[in-house]
Amino acid sequence: MSESERGAGSQHPNTFQRRVEVIVAVVAACAIALVYAATHWIAPTLFSHFEYAPELAALPKRTRTRHHARGDPINIALVGTEEELDSAMHAAGWVLADKANRASDVAIAKSVLLDRPDPNAPVSQLYLFNRPQDFAFERQVGKSARSRHHVRFWRADGVNRDGRPVWLGDATFDLRVGVTSELSPTHHIAPDVDQERDTLVGNLASARLVDTLFTVSGMGIRVESHNAEGDRFDTDGELDVVILSPGDVPHARVDTLPEPTIVAIKDRLWRWVHAH
């Protein structure tokens, strides 16, 4: 065999390897593109539904921090007057959180360090409609403010249902305390934000102050998403809409409106995946 033939033959394995690498790279890029399209275009279009409340379609579905970083998902909406909202939340066992200031920051620090109650401990500010929450409610778990159920509410200006205001909320469960980059106290949330949404809805229903319940599209399905504090969260992407009982008149039964079939199938599949 001549020198030139040996040189040509020695190039074939390298050429084949390069072709395999190119094919693998193309297949991987196509797979990533398909996943991105499925989660950002196909799924949002397929599962988008506002049949019971079209006025909510254009509203924001995720909070922001003061520095515009993405925060927690909006996963619940209450319909009722300010007085009805306050009455229903208290009847459900939730209390109004204090406004965040230096004194309340010191109080929550004492609660955590000394392991003593602070049922009205402040909630950190998140923004919607370019403003911080109008109200925040919480339900303490354990002896201190270290762990708690909590939700912020923003009134959706210019949006109402049968003449009653609509309040958007971000129900999450605080697992533990932490400190922000600005050295202010904060909490880190549990990843299953759907469970906290369902807990709040269940508490309101148990207080017998829910007239009607239905869902619309929230921020969409998210797996391994993170908020501004780096906390992971997963969600089925639904936003529960709770029509509070007008005038705080107790209701023995909640009128639950059915979801579209494809959304109901998606939710059942999501719950099965989470359970396993």
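^ that was protein a. below is b, sequence first then the tokens
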Amino acid sequence: MNIEIKVITNAKKREILREGIGLKVRLMSLPVEGKANEELIRYLSEMFGVKKSEVKIIRGDKDKRKLISIPVDEAAIEKVAGKSTTD
């Protein structure tokens, strides 16, 4: 499934929230040298229980708005949206 994601970097905690038809993901990393993208892929794979290699950035590699491909269904997104972890 392809999901539109708005990424907020330099947050105090990691969090996934529902935003319209997509998601808003707060990350603790800064968008420097791909660190935020790496954290995004790692965080989404942990939260959805899939391998990191299954999470792909289709569009928006250097943008706050991204299109992500991840092998989950709408029910999994609803289950995860709203949960957060603080690392």
